[in-house]
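Justification of computing resources. Each target in the renewal requires a structure prediction run like the one illustrated here; the chain below, 203 residues long, is used simply to show the kind of job we budget for.
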Amino acid sequence: WSYQSFDGSSYSNLVYNPTFKKWTPPGQSVPEITQFDQHPGTAATNWVARAWTAPSTGTVSLRGRILKSDNTGGGNGILARITKNGQQIWPASGTQTVAAGDEYTGVNYVLDTVSVNAGDTIRFETNENGESSYDRASWTPSVSYTSRQGQAYNWGFNSGHEAGWNVYGATSSTAPGTDPNALNLTSNGNDPRVESASNQLHL
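Resulting structure tokens:
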């Protein structure tokens, strides 16, 4: 996770302030992100975002609820959106409004089957709704993989050599297109495994 602001053309990382325990631009009080809350900047283009970067390719599910958290009915609410690599994926059109004083119900969302590639960034963003007072929101989004590309664990094997390990129930290779330092096992109908030469460790 990272914490960012948008100036209308690009995203930039916020800096953590250990004294006040929040992320802000250097020398500024807003936009800000704290452990549970976030507050946009003072211009209509200044979105503030919790950003999740996908560590691997797969499909994710997004769930959460956005609440106002100023403990007052002041202001005129906020706008919210979810983007992937800068392109909005929620809501389907326009932006989601969270009303002023809506501290208990808020707006929830469920997005399943969101495809991601390694390095893709999903951002959970809020902004002012015409003016920037009382724009603090509580948002702790959840991201969970529902499917993920399998990855061979790198045991440091090299050029097909098992480095003293014995293969049972499978054939082994480091075929082109796979990790050249990973031992790839193909079951021959039995339980594939590798054992140390001294038979002390089974994998």
